[in-house]
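Re: [ENG-882] Designed sequences occasionally contain unexpected residues at chain ends

Forwarding the minimal case from QA. Structure tokens:
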């Protein structure tokens, strides 16, 4: 699937090694309930080497090995078990969407009441609205 564009940063998915600018579930530090970030798979490294643009490859490999953050495509996070259960909720009805189609779905979820009963969800404010 094509990148969304509009100056969105290319990122790597710590699960599949995909390189794109699609929406991700991002964690600061280790995953909740785990002492360290999960190990990097050889398949993820291979995919980054294969998919990353030449000028971005080193940065994306550093991001992949960076233990201070975990970044996962929403579908990848669902597939391996979202540790906080967010990915199942916000992608409900959009399980097959990626890229800009998923971004549009998530924008609707941000404006909904789906998380009103959760005090562990924080949206970051950006110039474009909430994220």
């Amino acid at each position: 699937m094509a990148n969304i564009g509009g100056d969105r940063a290319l990122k790597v998915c710590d699960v599949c090694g995909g390189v794109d600018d699609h929406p991700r579930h991002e964690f600061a530090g280790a995953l909740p309930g785990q002492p360290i970030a999960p190990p990097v798979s050889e398949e993820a490294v291979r995919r980054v080497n294969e998919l990353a643009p030449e000028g971005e490859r080193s940065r994306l490999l550093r991001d992949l090995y960076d233990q201070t953050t975990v970044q996962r495509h929403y579908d990848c996070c669902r597939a391996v078990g979202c540790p906080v259960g967010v990915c199942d909720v916000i992608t409900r009805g959009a399980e097959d969407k990626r890229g800009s189609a998923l971004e549009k779905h998530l924008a609707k979820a941000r404006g909904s009441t789906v998380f009103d009963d959760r005090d562990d969800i924080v949206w970051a404010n950006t110039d474009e609205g909430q994220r």
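QA comment: On inspection the terminal residues look reasonable. The beta strands are 11-12, 19-20, 24-28, 69-73, 125-126, 129-130. Proposing we downgrade this to a documentation issue.
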